[in-house]
Amino acid sequence: MTIAVIVLTINNGYGASGSKSAYIIFTNGTIYINSGSAVTNLVVSGGAVAAYNVDPGSYPGASFVNLNGGVAYPGFHDSHDHLMEVGCVPPTAVNLSGCNNAAEIATNVAKHAQFVPAGKPVIGVDFSLAKLSNAWTLADRDLLNQAGGGHEVMLMDNLGHNCIVNSAVMTNYNITATSTVPLSGVIVAENGQATGLLKEAAMLLCVQDILSKMSDRDVFAETLLWLKVWASFGYTSINDMMGLPGGRVMRPQLYAEMESQGVLPLRVNYALTIEPISKVRF
Q: Which of 84, 94, 230, 279 is most buried as measured by Cβ atoms within 10 A of its Cβ?
């Protein structure tokens, strides 16, 4: 069955030319104008709905779109989001959006870390690097080490382009001030020592591996929650960009599982956007 999404606005007037010949008529399908009402045809002019359930003979010269028995319904498309990436972040992640300095970040991490099982990382999200004046010092690193309580700690900023890790992560993933990083990556250092602030592609050194520890079942559940939020805004389809400087954490097969289970609330197009520089064609 063909499904068409028509993104239009409502307009009661004629087309720009003032002539009915400027109209396009969608016909021969089931055309929903809301969640419960369908019409037999739809008249469009200038990208706006002009009328429906009309006599096509009243529109001489109009062009026709044959839906061939398919279904059309109003739709809104979000061309750029990262819902499954967010779904790879555990629901217990520390919200750092209100933190203005390293001490406040450490305090929030410490409150959370005591409830995280041994061997599991402490994940935080949404701190602002701008509030930290784009800096993270060795003294700040020491505060985070104390707050982590022996756990790996990884904190993602509100842009998704920078992260802060503690010494446990740097030890486990062999991150030093002189580690080789991909193009655009920066390991912030002080006195020859890595402070734990990883910018852009430097996140590839650990972020992908840490987030991959979340189970498919949990990613499925978390992503579905975000899909439902987007659907509640009125979106009927999205492009999930499926890439961040920290690597590929996407699991598109989970979208297929949602569809097969009949729980996928909107259509998903996806694009893997992170490629090695060697694959870029000039």
A: 84
CATH number at residue 108: 3.10.310.70
Does residue 244 sit within a domain? no
The answer to whether residues 71 and 89 belong to one domain is no
- Domain annotation covers residue 115: yes
43, 57 contact by CB (below 8 A): no
Per-residue model confidence (pLDDT) at position 1: 46
- Among 58, 75, 92, the domain-final residue is 75
Q: What is the count of structural domains for the chain? A: 2
CB atoms within 10 A of CB 159: 12
In tens, the pLDDT along 39-97 reads: 999 999 887 889 999 999 999 999 999 999 988 877 788 888 989 988 998 888 999 99
* Percentages (nearest 5) of helix, strand, coil residues in the chain: 30, 25, 45
Q: Tell me the three state secondary structure of residue 70.
A: coil
CB 124 within 8 A of CB 165: no
In order of 6, 114, 126, 138, the CA distances from 15 in angstroms are 17, 65, 47, 65
Q: Are residues 98 and 195 in the same domain?
A: yes
Residue 130 has pLDDT above 90, yes or no: yes
- Rounded CA gap, 242 and 20, in Å? 44
* Own/partner long-range contacts of 162-167 (Cβ < 8 Å, ≥24 apart): 162/129, 162/197, 162/198, 162/199, 162/200, 162/203, 163/197, 163/198, 163/203, 163/207, 163/246, 164/105, 164/127, 164/136, 164/196, 164/197, 164/198, 165/196, 165/198, 165/206, 166/141, 166/196, 167/141, 167/196
Domain of 166? 84-211
- Sign of dihedral through CA atoms 194, 200, 204, 209? positive
Residues 20, 135, single domain; the answer is: no
Domain closes at, from 75, 102, 137: 75
